[in-house]
Amino acid sequence: MIAIRPPLLKQSITKNQHTFPYFRAGRALTEDKAGLAGAIESVAYELGGVLGGTILGSILSFTYTKALVLPQGNPAPAFARDSLDQALLLAGHLSGDTMTKLITQAKSAFDIAFVTVLLAGTAIMLLMAAVIARIISRAITPEPSRVPHS
Fold first, then answer.
1. What's the mean per-residue pLDDT of the chain?
2. Is residue 10 part of a domain?
3. Which whole-number Å values give the CA distances from 59 to 50, 52, 126, in the listed order?
4. Where do the DSSP E strands lie in 19-141?
């Protein structure tokens, strides 16, 4: 097990503060507003986690359901389409070739859904990076009407 030494961690954080705007913003706050900033940061983190899980989970579920091709003669197709776990439980009650086909199809559908979620997450992150870059560039670059004339 690797142990992280607090002084080394502190040195790493303080050395790289220029890469973390959060540290700069935190130092600019007065003590009476530090709690408010911490609360906003905490809520934003929690909200991002909930929305990310909801959106990506919905994409995974929808894609899995659409990608699953059930073998002919399956006794409970709706049950198998709920999740990979449900399909594998159903396959445990089937026999022979039908069981093998259901397991193969369910795993294949899950793989397709997982890759779709990875691509969707990547696209969302790239889109948000572009939006943030645009916001930052507008904040840094003054508008032509505001540039003082010499």
1. 78
2. no
3. 14, 11, 17
4. none
- HSE (side-chain half, CA atoms, 13 Å) at 91: 22
Share of the chain above pLDDT 70, in %: 71
pTM for the model: 0.64
Assigned domain for 149 exists: no
> Rounded to an integer, what distance in angstroms lies between the CA atom of residue 114 and that of residue 61?
10
Cα-Cα-Cα-Cα dihedral sign, residues 116, 118, 122, 124: positive
Place of tokens 């197709």: 77
* Domain span at 82: 38-141
Look at residue 16 and tell me if it is in a domain.
no
**26: in domain:** no
Per the CB < 8 A criterion, the answer to whether 122 and 137 are in contact is: no
